[in-house]
Design a protein that fits this description.
Shape: globular
CATH architecture of the largest domain: 3-Layer(aba) Sandwich
Strand content: 15-25%
Number of helices: 16
CATH class of the largest domain: Alpha Beta
CATH superfamily of the largest domain: Glycogen Phosphorylase B
Distance between the termini: 8 Å
Order of helices and strands: HEHEEHHEHEHEHEHEHEHEHEHEHEHHH
Number of strands: 13
Low-confidence stretches: 1-5, 7-14, 403-407
Largest sheet: 7 strands, parallel
Radius of gyration: 22 Å
Amino acid sequence: MSATMGLHETTIMAGRRMAIGFCENGAGYGGAVISLEAFLEKLPAGFRTHIYTGLGQEPYPRLSRLGTWRHLKPISLLSQRWLRAHRVPLASHLDNLCNILPTALRYYRTFKRDGIELVYLNNDASCNLAAALGARMAGLPTILHSRGFNTDTRGNRWVLANLSHCIAVSTAVKRGIVALGLPEHRCTVVAEGLDLNLFHPRPPAAPLRAELGIDAGQPVVTLVGGLVDWKGQDVLLAAAPRILARYPQAHILLVGGAYGRDRAFADSIAAAAADPALQGRVRLLGNRGDVPDILSLSDIVLHASTQPEPFGRTFLEGMALGKAVIASNEGGPLDVITDGQDGLLIPPRAPDALAAAILRLLDDPAFAATLGRNAAVTARRYSIERHAQAICDVLDANDPAGATRSQ
């Protein structure tokens, strides 16, 4: 049975609608929330969707179109920052007692009121400790969709030990989870999925080219990612002088904004991009709603993360659009890209290696085009329908009523 058939037939086979509490408690609106949205848009009617987020500002309210949405703001009776700054004895215990436990009780009451039957934790274990504790208090099966690496802490080990199952976005993430004690058979790798009706090879939009002031024939190199200190914008800017020395008409586009409270890195990138040595060729576009169009305008799509990326959906988006992609050779990209066939893998944190890879593609357009064509073929294996079906299979297998909803 195809993935699409499975999604449509779930409700018919089940005869019931399992209520799932989707909990998202990340630091800001980024790839983890975007991926959750994409999945929920494909979730079949056989599930009753309740979405709980720790943040409530825009664009989180738009999740209400996908189910019942509630903003469950974490309770903070004591400042964690104050506790650390003043080196208060037993600070972690005080944090658990005054912050984590009250928030967990809020989740417990909400789960009971909403009739939740299964809890789905989006992102990593640490940001979902309170929700996991609330689920445990309510006696509910819990699934963690681990979209990030989990550090070795007692809290994370407790969350993992109390899971019914874990979904990891890549082999690298699964490897880390198993190292923290979760049995391998209770962890399934499900790669991110794309809407291939949106991400597919197509000509760039002329109005966008005019808006950005990019003439036909001028090379465009694009990196999409939040302005946080491990996404690699600093590595690209360090490589930029060498690129612009050979291609002075090239445009380097940085798409994404700062999130979280610390803007120091974002400010440093803005200052570096304004350096006269870069001749105004680096553009900070901020958060955009037209990322597919921007990528379609690009010649090269970059993934330059300086830490292993759990997955990194932007490189896959570039591949689906038929672009030549360069990615760091660790973490999620290793599951998808075959070096030299459908993309280039390079050492992270290495401006010279990044500049050399970009120049290799700009110098050899035929090679870049071949990589792009092959990349588009590879990306077809990563449809959002296939992704959603794989997640639904895990949800079905952990249905507390024991109903079999997929075959």
